[in-house]
């Protein structure tokens, strides 16, 4: 009985295509993981800053109620306003006397100034020729 010869051409081509696909998927996985890591680190920094500012605000309220710091100036509505800032994030606290020698919080807001990203890279301007 005669055996049919094995043709390696199509098999080699299939293995090459599979190898290229797996290499591309590995590169995409690596770059996605790096981008996720950078985003997670940036988010961790933001959360740490906000919680540190929250801790400073709570410590300020504690010292104010204990009489260790002077009360801030009242605005035109009678609310005592103070601001704390850390790394570009601002905590605005509004207080009113509660009648028992302490202060009640009427507003507690954290804000960060928005900074637009003007760097759009090598994006097409929308025109084909020179303007003018």
Describe this structure in words.
- It is a single chain.
- With 132 residues, the protein is an alpha+beta fold.
- It has one domain.
- The chain has one helix and three strands.
- It has a three-stranded antiparallel sheet with strand order 1-2-3, covered by helices on one side.
- A hairpin with a 2-residue loop joins strand 1 and strand 2.
- The longest helix is centred in the first third of the chain and has 58 residues.
- The radius of gyration is 31 Å and the shape is elongated.
- It starts with 8 loop residues before the first helix and ends in a 20-residue tail after the last strand.
Secondary structure layout plus pairing:
Elements: H1 9-66, E1 80-86, E2 89-97, E3 103-112
Highlighted features:
132 residues, alpha+beta, 3 strands, 44% helix
Range of helix content: 40-55%
What class, by secondary structure content? alpha+beta
Rg over CA atoms, rounded to whole Å, is 31 Å
Strand order of the largest sheet: 1-2-3
Q: What distance separates the N and C termini?
A: 83 Å
Strand content is 15-25%
What is the mean predicted local confidence, pLDDT? 88
Domain unit count: 1
Q: Tell me how many strands there are.
A: 3
The topology string of helices and strands comes to HEEE
Quick description:
The protein is an alpha+beta fold and 132 residues long. It has one helix spanning 9-66, and strands spanning 80-86, 89-97, 103-112. The protein has one domain (11-112).
């Amino acid at each position: 009985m005669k055996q049919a010869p094995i043709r390696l051409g199509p098999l080699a081509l299939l293995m090459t295509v599979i190898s290229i696909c797996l290499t591309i998927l590995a590169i995409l996985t690596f770059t996605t993981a790096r981008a996720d890591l950078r985003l997670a680190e940036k988010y961790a920094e933001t959360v740490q800053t906000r919680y540190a500012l929250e801790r400073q605000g709570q410590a300020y309220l504690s010292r104010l109620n204990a009489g260790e710091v002077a009360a801030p100036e009242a605005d035109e509505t009678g609310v005592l306003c103070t601001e704390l800032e850390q790394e570009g994030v601002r905590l605005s606290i509004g207080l009113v006397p509660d009648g028992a020698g302490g202060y009640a919080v009427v507003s507690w807001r954290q804000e960060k100034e928005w900074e637009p990203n003007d760097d759009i890279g090598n994006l097409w301007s929308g025109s084909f020729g020179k303007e003018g």
